[in-house]
Amino acid sequence: MAHMIWKDAISFGLVHVPVQLYPATQSEKVGFNLLDKRTGKDVARDNIVRGFEYEKDKYVVLSDDEIRSANPESTQTVDILAFVDAPDISFLYLDTPYFLTPDHKGEKVYALLREAMKASGKIGVASVVLHNKRHLVALIPVGPMLALNTLRWSAEVRDIDKVKVPADGTKAAGVTSRELDMAKKLIDDMSASWDPSEYHETFRDDIMALVDKKIRAGKTEEITEVETPHESRQSADILSDLLKRSLGRGKGKAASGTTSGGRKRAANEEEDEDDEDTEAAAPARKKPRTTRTSKSSGAKAAPAARKRRAAA
Asked: What are the tens digits of pLDDT across the range 251-261?
């Protein structure tokens, strides 16, 4: 179980719900230590301080106690400001989730608040201090749990009018009804129930494989050039063709156990045509050389692809 961050209460009106706060996520990121470039040694946490730059290269150092005392009215109580409909809060505002559990014999009033919010279809918008900083948060019933999700302030979310996107509406964007129908069909074919366990972050595995390879090679201090991934380009005038091919491949994947030999040959011919189209569109472009750091099924696919092109 994760370590408790703090315990206090949810407060709205005359209702006081004792709760404990726990992190609802865990980091799967690759950890890098802070090193002094001159010595290669760790920078001790005791030597890291909070500094506010008031002029160029001039700082005022503030301790955690000083930061807390700057706003004496700040408390860790979850003060509910309003109850709103859940769809009213855009995903753009959601930040970090936490778990809230009952504390000090507050199970019944905790359950009362949870069930009342479920019945009303509302979520709470509240204010709370976390890590010496005041946050706007959403209080959300999730099954038997009350979750607290920090929200970005309105000033932290960019105005969509400041970025360039296609005009709203199919006609204004130049999308035909035929293209829209094919896109909707593709979405239907790829629709599935949400299961987060089916999705994995592979960056850490790739980094660890690279680290292991460099250690075995004795290259523990060398800096190697990281190759920039090749960016594929698609033209807007082949949108319909791409949608057709995506739909065809989706059906083939769904029925891979019963697909006839003729359909398999057609799929192979279509892949060959894709390769020829790509080579014809960019004859002078040199394919980037890539280096694999771990074994995978994808490593066996390249010889088969070369055999198909040779046969064509």
From this structure: 655 555 444 44
Buried b (16+ CB within 10 A) or exposed e, 215-224: eeeeeeeeee
The verdict on residue 86 lying in a domain is yes
| Residue 95 to residue 138: CA distance in whole angstroms | 10
- Each residue of 170-208: pLDDT tens digit? 889 888 999 999 999 988 999 999 998 888 878 878 888
Return the closest-CA partner of residue 312 out of 256, 274, 286. Answer: 274
Return the DSSP state at 167.
P
Q: Domain span at residue 158? A: 80-187
- Nearest-angstrom CA–CA distance, 48 and 55: 20
pLDDT value of residue 65: 77
The span from the CA of 285 to the CA of 282, in Å, is 5
Q: Classify residue 245 as exposed, middle or buried by CB count within 10 Å of its CB (0-12, 13-18, 19+).
A: middle
305 part of a folded domain: no
Supply the CATH number for residue 85's domain: 2.40.290.10
